[in-house]
Each structure stands twice: as C-alpha cells, then as structure tokens.
Amino acid sequence: MNIFAKLSGYFVLCAMLSLNLLPIAHAAGDVNRGQQLSTTCIACHNEDGNTTNPQWPKLAGQHASYLVTQMQLFKNGERPNPIMMPIMANFSEQHIEDLAAFYASQKTSIGTANPELVDRGKQLYRGGDIAKGIPACIACHGPDGRGNEQAGFPVLSGQNPDFTLEELEDYKASSRTSDLYGIMRTIAGRMDKEDMVAVASYIHGLH
Ligand code: HEC
Ligand code: HEC
Which of 29, 51, 102, 175 could form a disulfide with 56 if both were Cys (CB 3.0 to 4.6 A apart)? Predict the structure, then answer.
C-alpha cells in the first residue's frame, strides 16, 4: 500500500474518532494522585515532566490519552524499552490514568532550534519533501506542534532533539512498531539522518 492510501485510511479513522463514532473507554485520571505516584519518575523525567537529560522525553503538556497509550504499551511489552517496561509493570490502569493526568496538566518547556539547521527543519515540518515522499509534519502535529488529541497525534513542541531523533530512527528501523497503520514507520523510512536531525532541532524550538 502506498503512503497516500495508508494516510487516507488513517484520516477516515480519525474522522470517525473525532465524530465519536467509535467507543473509547476513558476513565478520568486524578492529577493529585498522579503527582504522588510520579515520585518514581522524577529521577529521569524531572518533577514537572520537563527532563533536562536530552536523551529522555519531556512528558509535560503531552495529551493524557497519548501518555496512557504509551504507558500501556510499555506495560504489555508492545513498545519494548528496557528502562520503561519494568517501571510500568508495577502500575495499575488507574495509576496510569492518574500519572497521565498529572503530566498532561504540566507546561511544556520550549528550547531553541539550531540556527544552522532551522531552514531545512522548518521546510520539512511545514512543507515536507515531495521528491522524497515525506509528508509535512504540520498536517498531523499542527502548526505549533500541539498535535490533535482526539486523532492520536501527539504533542511534539519543545521535545528534546536527541529523543526525537532516536524515535525517528526507531520507527525507521521498525524497532518501534506500535504506531497505527505504520504511519510513522513509513514517514521516517523516507528520511535520512540529516532530515531527522534538522526537523528534531526545529521541533525543539517550536510552539
Ligand atoms: C531510569 C529513567 C526513567 C524513569 C525512572 C522513568 N522513565 Fe519514562 N522514559 C525513560 C526513557 C529513557 C524513555 C524513552 C523510551 C523510548 O525511547 O522508547 C521514557 C519514556 C516514557 C514515556 C513515553 C514518552 C513519549 O513521548 O513517547 C512515558 C509516557 C514515560 N516514560 C512515563 C514515565 C513515568 C510515568 C514514570 C514513573 C512512573 C517514568 N516514565 C519513569 C526513562 C525513565
Ligand atoms: C499522517 C499523520 C502524521 C504525520 C504527517 C506525521 N506524524 Fe508523527 N506521529 C503521528 C502519529 C499517529 C504518532 C503516534 C505514533 C505511535 O503511536 O507510535 C506520531 C508520533 C510521532 C513521534 C513520536 C512522539 C513521542 O513523543 O512518542 C515523533 C517524534 C513524530 N511523530 C515526528 C514526526 C515528524 C518529524 C513528522 C514530519 C516529518 C511527522 N511526525 C509526521 C502522525 C503523523
């Protein structure tokens, strides 16, 4: 299937989700309980979810439903990561909802793009690369990198560039395979390392 067929299938699904045609079970999390549970996470993700380690992801301001899904994927091993899998194994579904509610309520810290990479990064993010078949990130992740919670498009703005690069490489290598319809695997598969580094730098300063 080519990428456009995949994308149109995906957009139909997203339209159904946004019209609430599919049932989504979603128990609300409790921000205060989530903050209490987050003491285990502080060493790596920082108190407010804005980690200062460039290789680890910021969680602050991410959509709650995306955080829930990713934590469930670590817990059941579908997103294999040697650090996060054992950590999530101990948390119940309610704990996961609470943790997600807490991090979603925090404010994302924004970084700065590398001036030497910003032109290429911006071009890829906002316009894609037609010759390489890379769609514009803006189509799903939005003009300010805030994504679209109902459609399942995560927040990217302010994310640490080393982490963004690693995720794009993981999608490309198919070592992260939990993306619906292989959307991100297909897109990252068309990017070379320079494209990934440039767009990751642009995203760091995007808001
Ligand atoms: C020892 C360090 C460490 C600790 C402690 C830790 N994490 Fe993580 N976390 C990571 C790393 C590294 C990743 C990136 C994993 C990957 O590349 O797939 C990550 C990824 C995540 C993600 C996915 C983010 C994304 O944008 O894809 C979530 C959600 C998450 N962690 C939540 C938590 C929560 C909640 C806790 C505490 C209960 C926690 N983590 C504790 C290191 C840690
Ligand atoms: C057709 C919609 C679509 C387009 C276009 C798109 N993405 Fe995504 N992106 C997604 C979805 C859906 C996910 C969640 C995938 C998953 O569940 O693993 C995602 C996840 C990501 C993640 C992982 C975030 C995290 O914290 O776990 C990164 C990084 C990313 N996209 C970067 C990009 C970049 C860079 C571009 C442009 C070159 C782009 N995306 C274009 C839909 C899209």
Answer: 51
Q: Average the pLDDT over 33-45 and give the result.
A: 97
d(CA 162, CA 57): 9
Alpha carbons within 13 angstroms on the beta-carbon side of residue 109 total 15
Q: Which residue has the tokens 């300010």?
A: 144
Instruction: Dump pLDDT digits (tens) for 45-80.
Output: 999 999 989 999 999 999 999 999 999 999 999 999
**Euclidean distance between CA atoms 57 and 163, whole angstroms:** 6
104 by Cβ neighbours in 10 Å (0-12 / 13-18 / 19+) ranks as buried
CB atoms within 10 A of CB 189: 16
> What's the pLDDT tens digit per position in 85-107?
999 998 999 999 999 999 999 99
Question: Which pair of tokens denotes residue 61?
Answer: 């301001």
Nearest ligand atom owner, CA of 64: 1
Q: How far is the CA of 16 from the centre of ligand 1 (A)?
A: 30
Regarding the beta carbon of 58 and ligand 1, being less than 6 Å apart is answered no
Q: Is the CB of 88 under 6 A from ligand 2?
A: no
130 Cβ contact list (under 8 Å, min separation 6): none
